[in-house]
Amino acid sequence: MKRLAFVLVLALSACQQSQNPWVECSQSSDDMHVQFVIEHDGKMTYRGGMDVIAERDTWIYQLGQEDIERIQMLLSALTMEHIDSTQVVLVNGTQMYGDEECKALLAKLRQLASSRFDAVIDGLPKPSADVLIQRSIEVERHEQEARQSAE
Question: Chain-centre distance of CA 113, in angstroms?
Fold first, then answer.
């Protein structure tokens, strides 16, 4: 009977821990709200602005192995020692601290979130060398005209 109770307690604690995301990171100020949640399988959910308040996902992304390793490295620099900060970082449900370390983690997570625009930007038409040269010539001509009219 005692063994069964022990096994049941272990099973319940394992289930409870798996319900917590791996990383929860948020930052709020008067004019900005951002929240990142990373599950144990590497799925990252981003919420920004009003989506944080409405508890609505803005964007979901599957992290690659390189990104996960970089995040693990940044998390290893955090401490459990309390420091006042506007950033909140939870690792497996435990709040972690470190002002500069939290800023570095947030910068990495923001960089990953902004990568959602890379495909769109890469798909935009690129100017040819002729167009760039023509624009440069036009800028020089306008600058010369502005100097001459100022004199």
Answer: 5
